Amino acid sequence: MLAAEFKKPKMHCVEGKRKENFRKRFSEEELRKRLSVVEYAVTQLGGTDTSGSSRYLEETRNGFYHCVVCTKPLFASTAKFRHCGWPSFDRAQNDSITETVERGQHGVKLTEASCADCGAHLGHKFKDGPTESKLRYCINGSALEFKKAEA
Ligand SMILES: [Zn+2]
């Protein structure tokens, strides 16, 4: 997919997420080399995988989902469930996610979920999950790297 085809969501950060506030920082040059066009657009420009296109949508193996940018472990496979067109999780690893309130169209507030270490855009957090935590992290597969647990 070309970067030009990638639609930026029609919303903007209210509080503004500043990259310089994150512990791990990478140059744009390095990330453009290291990440695919889609991975870059999602994690650095706040883009969104097309519904149903996310890798790991059907992944059910045991392991961890890491930040594709900085490798921080974000979600355990035991937290994953199938809800919509993106990989969903009902809880995140401790201190792995930074939340930012975004205002979407018609003033609807959305909670953006980003990697706590590098600020990569991951997806959004909703409070309508089907499990006990009632949380639903709706995450772009392009922001994740799955590592299978050692058997
Ligand atoms: Zn990260």
UniProtKB/TrEMBL annotation:
Against InterPro entries, the record matches this protein to:
Met_Sox_Rdtase_MsrB, Met_Sox_Rdtase_MsrB_dom, Mss4-like_sf
The EC category is: oxidoreductase
Q: Which cofactor does it need?
A: Zn(2+)
Q: Which reaction does it catalyse?
A: L-methionyl-[protein] + [thioredoxin]-disulfide + H2O = L-methionyl-(R)-S-oxide-[protein] + [thioredoxin]-dithiol; [thioredoxin]-disulfide + L-methionine + H2O = L-methionine (R)-S-oxide + [thioredoxin]-dithiol
Q: What GO CC terms are in its UniProt record? A: cytoplasm
tRNA processing as a keyword of this entry, yes or no, is no
Mind listing the GO biological process terms from this record?
protein repair; response to oxidative stress
What molecular function does GO assign, one term?
metal ion binding
Relay the cofactor remark from the entry. Answer: Binds 1 zinc ion per subunit.
EC numbers, comma separated: 1.8.4.12
Q: Domain named MsrB: which ranges?
A: 28-149
Its keywords, alphabetically, are: Metal-binding, Oxidoreductase, Zinc
Write down a Pfam family by its short name: SelR
Give the similarity note. Answer: Belongs to the MsrB Met sulfoxide reductase family.
Alphabetical list of PANTHER family matching this protein = METHIONINE SULFOXIDE REDUCTASE, METHIONINE-R-SULFOXIDE REDUCTASE B1
Free-text function comment from the UniProt entry: Methionine-sulfoxide reductase that specifically reduces methionine (R)-sulfoxide back to methionine. While in many cases methionine oxidation is the result of random oxidation following oxidative stress, methionine oxidation is also a post-translational modification that takes place on specific residues.
User: Could you identify this protein by its name?
Assistant: Peptide-methionine (R)-S-oxide reductase
State the species of origin.
Oikopleura dioica
